[in-house]
Write a structure and sequence with these properties.
Main location: nucleus
Helix content: under 10%
Keywords: DNA-directed RNA polymerase, Nucleus, Transcription
Protein name: RNA polymerase Rpb7-like N-terminal domain-containing protein
Pfam families: SHS2_Rpb7-N
Distance between the termini: 19 Å
Number of helices: 1
Radius of gyration: 22 Å
CATH architecture of the largest domain: Beta Barrel
Organism: Rhodosorus marinus
């Protein structure tokens, strides 16, 4: 699975009114609130800040704003998916040409070309159904899929997935994943 601990640095700008005895606590709280749950480029999605390195370095005054800038070093648990990885996800939208699913913060598109050949789109039920009616993919269905492509943008990561291999497809009970 794509979970890693990485060392990162974040420059925090602090207004002079926070220059008091609790500055260190203020910086720690601000760091956590600003980075947890955010996308960190090539590192992936920051799940949680595990450790903030001590001592916190001395800040530098920004002459144009009067704010102090503190370079805070920290260790974070990140979620970074890779091509070829198998993930469990929840279907968020069903379309005639495939479906969208999410695995935590990652949005995944599965084209109808990447579904098993026995699956057909049912317009009445707005779902994908196997010919023998054994498998059904609709909104909120838990599915296991393989990532076949990743696109990293400045603020988000998108993926394409496939269910054309053995052991991929709808998972028995989606209630466990919602």
């Amino acid at each position: 699975m794509g979970f890693f601990v990485v060392k990162l640095v974040k420059d925090l700008q602090v207004h002079p009114r926070f220059f008091n005895a609790s500055l260190s606590d203020t910086l720690k709280q601000r760091l956590i609130s600003e980075v947890e749950g955010q996308f960190a480029g090539r590192h992936g999605f920051i799940v949680i800040v595990q450790k903030i390195e001590e001592p916190i370095p001395v800040g530098e005054i920004d002459s144009s704003t009067g704010f102090a800038v503190f370079p805070i070093k920290y260790h974070a648990l990140v979620f970074r998916p890779f091509r070829g990885e198998v993930l469990d996800s929840i279907v968020t939208r069903v379309l005639p040409h495939g479906f969208l699913a999410s695995a935590g913060p990652l949005d995944i598109f599965v084209s109808h070309h990447c579904l098993p050949s026995d699956m057909k789109y049912d317009q009445q039920g707005e779902c994908w159904v196997s010919i023998n009616q054994a498998d059904k993919i609709e909104t909120k269905t838990a599915v296991r899929l393989k990532l076949i492509g990743l696109k990293v943008e400045a603020t988000k990561m998108h993926a394409t997935g496939s269910m054309k291999e053995d052991f991929l497809g709808p998972i028995a009970s989606s209630a466990d994943y919602i």
